[in-house]
Structures are given as C-alpha cells and as structure tokens.
Write a structure and sequence with these properties.
Layout lengths: L1 H9 L7 E6 L1 H13 L5 E6 L2 H5 L6 E6 L2 E8 L4 E2 L11 H18 L1 H9 L1 H5 L3 H21 L16 H10 L6 H18 L5 H13 L22 H10 L5 E4 L5 E4 L4 H16 L2
Parallel strand pairs: 1-2, 2-5
Antiparallel strand pairs: 3-4, 6-7
Helix pairs in contact: 1-2, 4-5, 4-7, 4-9, 8-9, 8-11, 9-10, 9-12
The structure holds nicotinamide-adenine-dinucleotide and zinc ion (ZN).
Zinc ion binds next to helix 9.
Amino acid sequence: VHRVIRDALTNGLCRHSYVIGIGGGALLDAVGFGAALVHRGLRHIRMPTTTLSQGDSGVGVKNGINLEGVKNAVGAFAPPFAVVNDLSFLATLSQGLLLDGMAEAFKVAIIKEAAFFDFLEANAAALAKGSLPLIEEAVRRSAGLHLDHIRASNDPFEFGVARPLDFGHWAAHRLEGQSGFSIRHGQAVAIGLAVDTLYARDKGLLSATESRRIIGALRQAGLPTYHHLLSARDTDGRLAVVAGLEQFREHLGGDLSVTLPKGLGHRVEIHEMDEAAIERAIRNLEERTARP
Ligand SMILES: NC(=O)c1ccc[n+]([C@@H]2O[C@H](COP(=O)([O-])OP(=O)(O)OC[C@H]3O[C@@H](n4cnc5c(N)ncnc54)[C@H](O)[C@@H]3O)[C@@H](O)[C@H]2O)c1
Ligand SMILES: [Zn+2]
C-alpha cells in the first residue's frame, strides 16, 4: 500500500489518473486500497489474474489488507473504474490456485443458483484435474452471480448486516488468521463452507442428501473440507475457531448475521450460532477426512 502511494505521488498522479492493478486478489486489494487513499481516491482499474479474483474479489467494491493479525483490518469501499477479466491469465496458475476460485464458485452456487451447483457437482472430478474450459465456465458464472448480487442487492456498501456473499467466511477468515495466513483464502473458504453446510444440516436447513451432495462435491473437486486448526482449543477449552464469530460480527458491525443455505440455491440469515452444533459439524468433518 505504501509503495502504491509513493509511486502515485512520485509520478504526479491526480484524481483523473488511472492506476491499473494486474494480479491476484491480494495485489488488487492492496493496489485498490492505496489508490483509494491518494488524494482521497485515484481511479483504479483491475485486471484479475487468478480464478478467485476473476470470479469473486475482482468484481467487487471492497479493498483491504490484513493488519495486526486481523483479516481485512483496514480497507476502503472503492468501486473500480473498470474490471478486465482475461481468461488467458489462468493458464499459468498452479493446480491449487486454479481450484481456489472454485471454492467461491461453490459458495455462490449453493446459496444462489442450484443449477450452477449441479454443474459444479457434475464436473467436480474434471475440475479437480484442472480442466481449463470447465474452470473458465465456472469463473464466468461465478463472476456473473457475484456481480448480480452487488448490483441488485441495494446494499453494495454493506450498510445492512446481511452479507450473503460471506457464506462460509466466518470460519474461513478465522482459520486464515489462526494459520498466520498460510492457509490460502480459497482453501479456507472451502473448509468454512463445509462447516456451515453441516451446521445447516444439523439445524434442519438442509436435507441429509443436500449436505452429502455439497460435501461430496467439494471433496471430489479436490477442495479441502477439514484442517486440524478447526479442532484447536483456547486455554479455556473452547474451540479457537469460534472466536471467528465475534471477529466477523465486529467487522460487520451491529448484530451477528451469518448466511446459511436453506435448501440448495436458497439462503437464510441467522443471528446466533450454537457452539455445540458447530462442534458436532467439526467432529463430523474430522471423521470424514480420516476416511478415504
Ligand atoms: N476484496 C474482496 O472483496 C476480496 C474477496 C475475496 C478475497 N479477497 C482476497 O483475495 C486474496 C486471495 O486472492 P487470490 O486467490 O487471487 O490469491 P493471491 O492474490 O494471494 O495470489 C496467490 C498467488 O498467485 C500468484 N499469481 C497471481 N496470478 C497468477 C497467474 N496468472 N499465474 C501464476 N501465478 C499467479 C500471485 O503472485 C500469488 O503468489 C485474499 O487475500 C483474500 O482476502 C478479497
Ligand atoms: Zn471469499
């Protein structure tokens, strides 16, 4: 962020200048945030180069960085002047980075479009093998759904408490922090989706078949559904991941609001979570992971 600011000042950029960020979500976040600060906001253009940034973060209005061990601790809402999604960037991504964007695709499909979930489920094995045409199709549909939400939700700057696009993210952000940010966002999101899927099943929001399909498809697509840090405990014996709920609420402001799936393709906002049920979900994932 400092470098963006320094370069902008050294090069005499003004509010009519354009700063172009070319890279993954982390770079775009830093460039967008830096650009938002200089002269109270230079225009920024994003060229996302990963599946995750092309399908999700790049098309959004948020820019932020982690600080003091807190995910997205500082940042700004600053819509980009333009976003250019060029699928040819994806050809050089490692297998892991290719799949990271699939986690966000599953996220948005599960709560918004059952037909997209069917597509991801039917092609899970091919996605896991890194089939580019299918990954491109998933990125395109994911970007469309994310963009539609931001455009049509009437709340692009999140004045309300509901944040459907953050399904699975309370645990994901916490796991990223717990791991010292060594777990990538996409991996953490896949695990967070698995936790909240089993939680939703526990609370009767998903049928046994629906939750089995979701966990099965995530695993078949090569995405993680468990990490040993999920089972880590604080000194008082409480699951460490649960502190993620309070951090999530703080970041959002107001009452806690967590989006869960309610049947495939639909969602519901809940305002409290039952720790015993979270623990059951985590135990269940741990046991499944132990099985081949
Ligand atoms: N602002 C938002 O709304 C928002 C939403 C979701 C995620 N995010 C953030 O996005 C970040 C994750 O983004 P990401 O998944 O794009 O990963 P990333 O930005 O961390 O990039 C991962 C790695 O991929 C490399 N890379 C990028 N493009 C490449 C390419 N075409 N070929 C080869 N290597 C390439 C990068 O150099 C980096 O080493 C997280 O920090 C997350 O918090 C932000
Ligand atoms: Zn995300």
